[in-house]
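Morning. Coffee machine broken again, so started the prediction first thing and wrote up yesterday's gels while waiting. Chain of 314 residues, entered below exactly as on the submission form.
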Amino acid sequence: MLTQPHLLGISDLTGGDIGMILDLAESYVAQGAGRHKHCGGLEGRTIVTMFFEPSTRTQASFELAGQRLGADVLNMSMQTSSLKKGESLIDTALTLNAMRPDLLVVRHSASGAVSLLAQKVTCAVINAGDGRHEHPTQALLDALTIRRRKGRLQGLTVAICGDIAHSRVARSNILLLGKMGNRVRLIGPPTLIPSGIERMGVEVTDDMGAGLAGADVVMMLRLQRERMDGGFVPSAREYYHRFGLDAEKLALARSDAIVMHPGPMNRGVEIDGTIADDINRSVIQEQVEMGVAVRMAVLDLLSRREEVAEGVDV
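Came back before lunch.
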């Protein structure tokens, strides 16, 4: 059983929690590869998804995960919700709570908004990304992808490259990889590296050569221009020249290094299309597949915790 009633961030998970989620997700990977992808683990349960920011991969995979587990899945269209009429986030939460959902999946542009909602509802809450804070299920699916390809999730050198400052994916990965005993390097222009991030136990450089040298995993991040309020990079062309991943730069990593990207990709900005499509090095499509399995595992484990709290024999 997970140690926490919600999944708000990797910071709340123990190493045992992470291992439990990944092990269960592994079984769902096998199930997803077969003809019979559905099971009744969450039959009779209701999952509500609330995405205040646009999403393709995360929202679709959570909804598919819930459906494969047999739950009723309700997608709240936040673009046309009462929030547009002036209703507060708290009032929306209280309204939803009165409907008695079992699991609530939330993405919001404000850091901490999901945690606030979790304090106002009686069901389990899953953070699907809040501002620049965290995106825990993305880090978990990245971890599962790494473990499957590298055979372990300890003692690896992982280079995370690009827009670290605006990336909740980077923060969650830094936390998870650190908890599991890996060496993490951050690579990017100084304008896109948060001040004081070295306190999280990472190495920082603006030199791709130094950062990629001997790396087992290369994780590229997109430029999040929608979160930028100034000139963080001179131009996309200059950025690609210095920090975009191409064959020449990738050759500095280990010969068996894998390439990751949380998506959506900007080809020719942070990654060369040939590298992204290289089935021998790129695990980008595998990350998408792992997303469904990891989210099934999270929904399953949080639901079991709810059942124990209700006194149901599981």
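The chain is about 40% helix and 15% strand. Going to sketch it on the whiteboard this afternoon.
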